[in-house]
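Notes from the 1:1 (GR / supervisor)

We went over the backlog. Supervisor wanted to see one worked example end to end before approving the batch request, so GR pasted a single chain during the call. The sequence is below; no edits were made to it. Supervisor asked that the structure be written out right there so they could see what the output format looks like.
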Amino acid sequence: MEINFSSDNRIVNWKYENKSYSYVVEGIIFATESNDMIFLEIYENKTFSYRFINLNGKDILWYDENGNLKLFDSDGHCINEHRYNELKTVKVSKDNIYLMYKNRISVLSRKGDEISKISPPFGYIFYRFIDGEKLSVICQGNNNTADKYGRNDWKFKYDFLNNTWHKESFAYWLFYTMSFNH
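Structure output shown during the call:
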């Protein structure tokens, strides 16, 4: 899917199922499609904010760097508004919303009800989500988790069945391959 935004950074355009869509907001600096959603990064009034929009142009979720979050129903109406202190980043999946903090991920339903909390792997703190359908993250370690070259940032994938994290690879090469984490 091709996504374009205007030179004045106000309008995002895309095509979905042979229909054209537009979304208008001031200060768009980045836009991409992933997991059947449009992700926008916006800078306005000296604040970064982020929006997830469905492919029909309806809002799913907004949040900003100050922890303010708005959740929308399938018609694009705001159903929940809350401030989350120390919120690092957010991931939206088909069924859930994941709120990342340094020392936990809160799993919310798409209506905003907290379902569970997930701790980071022992000796690590959460850093960012990795784009994709599965719950994968980059975690930052410390001197005790570093390899012989001093590298301590790792990619982990979550196993919901066993409630555990699986270390997959070093994180450094992933920064070049991720599609829209911020």
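Supervisor's comment: DSSP finds no helices and 17 strands in the chain.
Batch request approved.
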